[in-house]
Amino acid sequence: MTASPTVAGGADLADVARSDASLRRFLHGLPGVDQVGADARAAALGTRSIKTTAKEFALDLAIRMVDLTTLEGADTAGKVRALASKAIRPDPTDPSCPPTAAVCVYPDMVATARETLGDSGVHVAAVATAFPSGRASLAIKLADTRDAVAAGADEIDMVIDRGAFLSGRYLQVFEEIVAVKEACGDAHLKVIFETGELQTYDNVRRASWLAMLAGGHFIKTSTGKVQPAATLPVTLVMLEAVRDFREATGQQVGVKPAGGIRTTKDAIKYLVMVNEVCGADWLDPDWFRFGASTLLNDLLMQRSKMRTGRYSGPDYVTLD
Fold first, then answer.
1. How many Å apart are CA 149 and CA 179, to the nearest integer?
2. 220 belongs to the catalytic site
3. Which residue among the candidates 86, 256, 266, 269 is catalytic per the annotation?
4. What is the C-alpha to C-alpha distance for residues 143 and 23, in angstroms, rounded to an integer?
5. Most exposed among 159, 187, 254, 311, judged by the fewest C-beta atoms under 10 Å?
6. CB-based contacts of 22-30 (< 8 A; 24+ apart in sequence)
7. Does residue 286 have an active-site annotation?
8. Which candidate in 141, 220, 244, 298 is catalytic?
9. Digit-coded pLDDT (tens) for 14-56
10. Helix or strand holding residue 49 (H, E)
11. Per-domain residue ranges of the chain
12. Number of neighbours of residue 115 by Cβ within 10 angstroms
């Protein structure tokens, strides 16, 4: 019989969520994050340059990793249909341009996105569980999730209750993630931390392990509604967590930085970091995503520049 994986001084991962006390001991027993070191390493990785052929690969890979997102109160069915059409064929002038990974919308827009995307292979992601605050009863969160899945969502982006987490009610957060994952059925679950509210890198590491232990398929930085959103140092901490989790358990978990990633230069910095910290296994849309609304346009402009040798005008891409 194979023994359960252990980390943090011999803690048995099968036992850590049996009580608030054991989960707290485990999470607070994780190695602390050197904030100065994390900031310095992220800054150093952000200075790496890549050559032309590698940049061509990086541009197409980044496009394939985009969760093209609209999460506004003014969203309409027409806007979602246009966004979904753009996700399928981001550059209508170039059929070699790959599609994005997903379209991310509110649950009430899932059916519209699903109808437009059809069997294109582009996924429908829905933010659920009282996004962006996460402040609702579990019954409401589960109903929100089930409604989105029933409407055709392939992926659910849930938000944790940051108040519960920061109060040390880790088991409550763990059990909510487990319950939402069950409500997802076959849909994949991305767990959003809202790292701008977690205050410390140690908390980001704890939230990462908590979400992975509860069965999240992805861990995600932010809702995009709170600043700071995604940052390189925070993403570095999360990448280290998924790397260490796979080493301990054999299970691979994805990472999704979201909010504030607007330029090709930014996206390439993240891809370099993924490769350096986790390795090529994570350089795939199944394991790394960008949550973004404006990033795709810059990627398309840079891709066109590499193809034609000149920058296109501002009307080359749509304003989403």
1. 14
2. yes
3. 256
4. 27
5. 311
6. 23/170, 23/171, 23/174, 23/210, 24/168, 24/170, 26/209, 27/170, 27/206, 27/209, 27/210, 28/206, 30/202, 30/205, 30/206, 30/209
7. no
8. 220
9. 678 888 899 999 999 999 999 999 999 999 998 887 887 889 9
10. none
11. 29-308
12. 15
Catalytic residue among 91, 144, 157, 161: 157
Q: pLDDT by residue for the chain (320 residues), tens digit each? A: 333 455 544 557 767 888 889 999 999 999 999 999 999 999 999 888 788 788 999 999 999 999 999 999 999 999 999 999 999 999 999 999 999 999 999 999 999 999 999 999 999 999 999 999 999 999 999 999 999 999 999 999 999 999 999 999 999 999 999 999 999 999 999 999 999 999 999 999 999 999 999 999 999 999 999 999 999 999 999 999 999 999 999 999 999 999 999 999 999 999 999 999 999 999 999 999 999 989 999 999 999 988 887 777 666 667 66
pTM to 2 decimals? 0.93
**100 with 114: CB under 8 angstroms?**
no
Q: At what angle do helices 170-184 and 138-151 cross, to 10 degrees?
A: 30
H/E stretch holding 153: none
Element spanning 259, H or E: none
Asked whether the CA dihedral 268, 272, 277, 283 is positive or negative, the reply is: positive
Cα distance between residue 17 and residue 223, in whole Å: 26
Q: Rounded to an integer, what distance in angstroms lies between the CA atom of residue 273 and that of residue 124? A: 27
Tokens of 153: 């969502």
Question: What is the chain's Cα-based Rg?
Answer: 19
- 305 among known catalytic residues: no
Torsion, Cα 162 165 168 170, to 10 degrees, reads 150
Just give the CATH number of 29-308. 3.20.20.70
